[in-house]
Write a structure and sequence with these properties.
single chain; 56 residues; two-stranded antiparallel ribbon; 2 helices
């Protein structure tokens, strides 16, 4: 399964560079795993309604 960074909560817009960027500070091992296996150990679904569903 490939990584879809567009739906990750750590993939945010950077106004300074006018582009999206991953805000996770990966170490070298995590980055190699991300590139080689196409899996991100820090992927977290950007689910803005999670809190609302929890309150119901």
């Amino acid at each position: 399964m490939g990584v879809d960074c567009n739906s990750c909560s750590f993939y945010v817009y950077d106004e300074e560079y006018d582009d999206y960027d991953c805000q996770v500070n990966m170490d070298e091992d995590d980055y190699v795993r991300f590139i080689s296996e196409k899996t991100c150990p820090y992927y977290q679904l950007d689910d803005e309604y999670k809190v609302v569903r929890h309150q119901m």
